[in-house]
């Protein structure tokens, strides 16, 4: 069989070569003293372009064989079919694929399945290996050789949080031209995949303990008032019976605390630990079980980011809002300072990070409100006349960080019914916005339409939570990392501080160093996002020789840690695989090499004859 049969037309070069040997050009007559001196080498015809008798020579055979070899190489000879299968495989990159089951890992089973298929495919087979994730990635290919794909399997490390396999399958179908795609995963769920997918599930149900929540906060001690750090951990257990594990809190080589944890099937328990002042990086550990990635949680020290608060509200309004401590001086807002961790009173509104101001005097323009260019504002819009009362449910922008833990259930909201507030509505009663958000240059203004004397918002448990959340939104905009403890797959914003000017002048990039030492350079900018945090552990952000931030990344994903629904099974695809033509193979290489050898041999034969002729001519003279 030939991959390119038209290449055989090159065999027409063979009769052309023979014709060139049979028809010689006429040589000019030469007069010599005697012909017997030339008998040994007289092979040249004296006629013009006339047909001469066939005269075999080594040079002629070399040229004919070389031409035939090149012609067959162009035709692409194949020992079998001229087409080979293009195998497209999607490997599930979810962290649950790293689970240990029956003495082996699911990852190992998946690799064995792929290697078996590569062996069946043969050396000429083409493979595209795709690893699923938030963004599917090619591990090998497209259309790599089977050996290349086999080598790439060593780099397969499943550790991604829960994600949909659909984007990876869509990429596989695009590469296969709508033909068969093999999906190797740990959950047998045929209805979730189209008919073009051959589903191979290699998972198994097993029990597992995991961290499902891990956070480290900087707060003020209720007993002493001094700043303290606390660790909050949640542990869940998935199994068919009660389970027991050990929770340990470790700092370096020192174990700070240990706790025995016993949970029933599907139960979750939360724990809080207070850390000593100046505590370093802390690692929370669970006893070894089926999935190792969720048994560790890293918690980096929260850098002090003290928030300066200020207000221009009168003492009576502060009392209505529940922000003043009646035991203190008139006009204090000590209870607001207690609600917001790591906060202090600012010297003035202009120097404050966040200020609560009165906008009841008809100030409609945010630029006319008090405060500096970077001062975040909560502008209280009190009614000048009659107010209306609204009872929920209220329309709340739940995706906003200000409403984490806020429900507004049972709240009576009193406010005037007038012109719409400037900004995007966050809380509304019907078509009337009650709380809006507006970005004005480098600062954020929250406009609050509220009558504090009549409304019950200030007396509900949601009020201090809302104030604390707004303060944390403002704190996140301060220089440095917005957060230092994140979950795998999340992104973090970094806002440059005073170091930016020197970095820009020297054109020094920021460098993000992964736990395994991998480095990523980032151009110096006022603000950038750190994403692609695909390794658990501690990441460092450096600028020159200075470390400007440390980031602890942990795996906390209940959907991946719950291994009870993992299963095995097989479902064939309803279509066959793609079979593209093979572009090149070993027979072509062999024929090209043979032609090269024959050409070199032809040159050697001709050169040897020329040397003999030259030696004979010099001897006759």
Please characterize this protein's 3D structure.
It contains 11 helices and 33 strands. By secondary structure, it is an alpha+beta fold. The protein has 5 domains: 5-81 and 585-620, no CATH class; 86-205 and 565-571, Rossmann fold, CATH 3.40.50; 210-302, Immunoglobulin-like; 307-475, Rossmann fold (3-Layer(aba) Sandwich), CATH 3.40.50; 480-554, Immunoglobulin-like. The strands form 8 sheets. Strands 16-15-17-18-24-23-22-20 form an 8-stranded mixed β-sheet. Helix 3 (106-121) packs antiparallel against helix 4. The longest helix is centred in the C-terminal third of the chain and has 35 residues, at 586-620. It is elongated. It starts with 12 loop residues before the first helix and ends with a helix.
Helical segment tally?
11
Q: Beta-strand percentage?
A: 25-35%
Distance between the termini: 58 Å
* pLDDT < 50 runs, ≥5 residues: none
Helix content: 10-25%
User: How would you characterize the largest beta sheet?
Assistant: 8 strands, mixed
CATH top level assignment of the largest domain: Alpha Beta
Distinctive features:
22% helix; six-stranded mixed sheet; 11 helices; 5 domains; 621 residues; alpha+beta; Rossmann fold; eight-stranded mixed sheet
């Amino acid at each position: 069989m030939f991959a390119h049969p038209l290449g055989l037309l090159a065999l027409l070069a063979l009769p052309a070569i023979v014709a060139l040997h049979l028809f010689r050009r006429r040589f000019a007559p030469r007069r010599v003293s005697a012909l017997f001196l030339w008998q040994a080498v007289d092979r040249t015809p004296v006629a013009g372009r006339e047909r001469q008798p066939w005269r075999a020579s080594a040079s002629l055979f070399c040229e004919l064989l070389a031409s035939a070899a090149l012609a067959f190489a162009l035709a692409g000879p194949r020992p079998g079919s001229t087409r080979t299968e293009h195998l497209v495989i999607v490997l599930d990159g979810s962290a649950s694929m790293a689970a240990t089951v029956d003495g082996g890992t699911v990852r190992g089973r998946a690799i064995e399945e792929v290697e078996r298929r590569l062996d069946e495919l043969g050396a000429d087979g083409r493979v595209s290996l795709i690893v699923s994730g938030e963004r599917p990635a090619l591990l090998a290919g497209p259309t790599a050789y089977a050996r290349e794909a086999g080598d790439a399997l060593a780099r397969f490390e499943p550790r991604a949080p829960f994600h949909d396999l659909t984007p990876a399958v869509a990429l596989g179908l695009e590469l296969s031209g709508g033909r068969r795609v093999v999906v190797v995963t740990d959950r047998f769920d045929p209805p979730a995949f189209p008919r073009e997918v051959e589903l191979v599930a290699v998972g198994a149900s097993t029990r597992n303990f995991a961290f499902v929540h891990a956070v480290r906060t900087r707060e003020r001690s209720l007993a002493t008032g001094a700043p303290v750090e606390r660790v909050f951990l949640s542990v869940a257990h998935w199994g068919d019976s009660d389970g027991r594990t050990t929770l340990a809190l470790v700092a370096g080589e020192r174990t700070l605390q240990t706790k025995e944890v016993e949970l029933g099937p599907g139960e979750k328990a939360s724990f809080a630990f207070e850390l000593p002042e100046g505590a370093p990086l802390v690692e929370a550990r669970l006893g070894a079980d089926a999935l190792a990635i969720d048994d560790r949680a890293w918690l980096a020290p929260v850098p002090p980011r003290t928030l300066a608060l200020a207000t221009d509200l009168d003492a009576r309004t502060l009392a209505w809002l529940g922000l003043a401590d009646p035991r203190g001086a008139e006009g204090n807002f000590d209870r607001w300072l207690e609600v917001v961790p790591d906060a202090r009173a600012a010297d003035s509104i202009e120097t404050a990070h966040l200020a609560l101001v009165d906008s009841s005097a008809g100030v409609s323009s945010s630029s006319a409100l008090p405060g500096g260019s970077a001062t975040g504002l909560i502008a209280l819009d009190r009614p000048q006349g009659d107010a209306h009362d609204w009872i929920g449910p209220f329309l709340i922008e739940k995706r906003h960080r200000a409403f984490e833990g806020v429900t507004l259930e049972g709240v009576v909201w009193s406010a005037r019914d007038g012109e719409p507030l400037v900004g995007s509505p966050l809380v509304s009663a019907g078509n009337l916005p009650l709380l809006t958000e507006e970005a004005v240059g480098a600062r954020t203004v929250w406009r609050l339409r509220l009558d504090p004397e009549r409304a019950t918002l200030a007396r509900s448990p949601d009020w201090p939570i809302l104030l604390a959340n707004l303060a944390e939104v403002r704190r996140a905009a301060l220089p440095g990392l917005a957060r230092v403890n994140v979950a795998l797959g999340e992104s973090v914003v970094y806002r440059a501080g005073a170091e930016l000017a020197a970095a820009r002048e020297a054109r020094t990039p920021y460098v993000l160093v992964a736990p395994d030492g991998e480095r990523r350079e980032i151009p110096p900018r006022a603000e950038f996002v750190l994403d692609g945090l695909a390794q658990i552990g501690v990441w460092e952000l450096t600028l020159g020789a200075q470390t400007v931030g440390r980031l602890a990344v942990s795996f906390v994903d209940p959907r991946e840690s719950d291994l009870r629904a993992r299963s095995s099974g097989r479902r064939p695809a309803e279509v066959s695989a793609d079979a593209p033509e093979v572009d090149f193979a070993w027979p072509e290489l062999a024929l090209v090499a043979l032609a090269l050898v024959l050409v070199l041999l032809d040159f050697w034969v001709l050169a040897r004859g020329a040397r003999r002729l030259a030696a004979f001519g010099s001897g006759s003279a």
